[in-house]
Amino acid sequence: MQEQYRTLAREGVHETEINRSRFLCALAPVADEREAQEFVARIRREHPTATHNCFAYVLGADASVQKASDDGEPGGTAGVPMLQMLLRREMRYVAAVVTRYYGGVKLGAGGLIRAYGGVVGEALDALGTLTRQRFRLATVTVDHQRAGKLENDLRATGRAVRDVRYADAVTLEIGLPESDVPAFRAWLADATAGTATCELGGEAYGDA
């Protein structure tokens, strides 16, 4: 698995004008192909009179799913440069739709490639990106007496506390970089005088 990947901070739209053609780039974070396709369909419904609604999306931390469409533009001049910009910026789990309203001036193949790729890059800069880090999930169980201090200590040392559950004992779910697991076990034993247990679970991605 990838140790980390970059994705979009928030959904949004960025607009630019090139030789009287309007280019609107809508970007959204998407979890899977269904979400990506629904986003593309929604943008198309919002712009039914547009000349073109071209799209590209990249899914999977390792970019295992990549799709692009020129939507009537000359082959390879729209969807592919959009996809290439997403990949060049190492973006994952992101869908892009560029809506073009033709302004009467032909851009030529090179101009189209620069326009479609460029507006995606500008939109990424405008909306912002964030990095997601791969974590090993760990469940820490501790008595009520030590739980409050332990939770504070975990947060103070920059460890991601994902969930806290109270029952006979207190269970904290945390995310750890794989390389941090041995050091964390030693730290936990020291911090709780050996009274806490730590069970490793699966893997997930969280904010780096």
From TrEMBL:
Signal peptide: none annotated. It comes from the Bacteria. InterPro entries: EFG_III/V, Impact, Impact_N, Impact_N_sf, Impact_YigZ-like, Ribosomal_Su5_D2-typ_SF, UPF0029_Impact_C, UPF0029_Impact_CS. PROSITE patterns: UPF0029. Residues 20-124 form the Impact N-terminal domain. Residues 140-194 form the UPF0029 domain. Coiled coil: none annotated. Gene3D superfamilies: 3.30.70.240, Impact, N-terminal domain. PANTHER family: IMPACT FAMILY MEMBER YIGZ, IMPACT-RELATED. Belongs to the IMPACT family. This is YigZ family protein. It comes from Streptomyces gulbargensis. The lineage of its organism: Bacteria, Bacillati, Actinomycetota, Actinomycetes, Kitasatosporales.
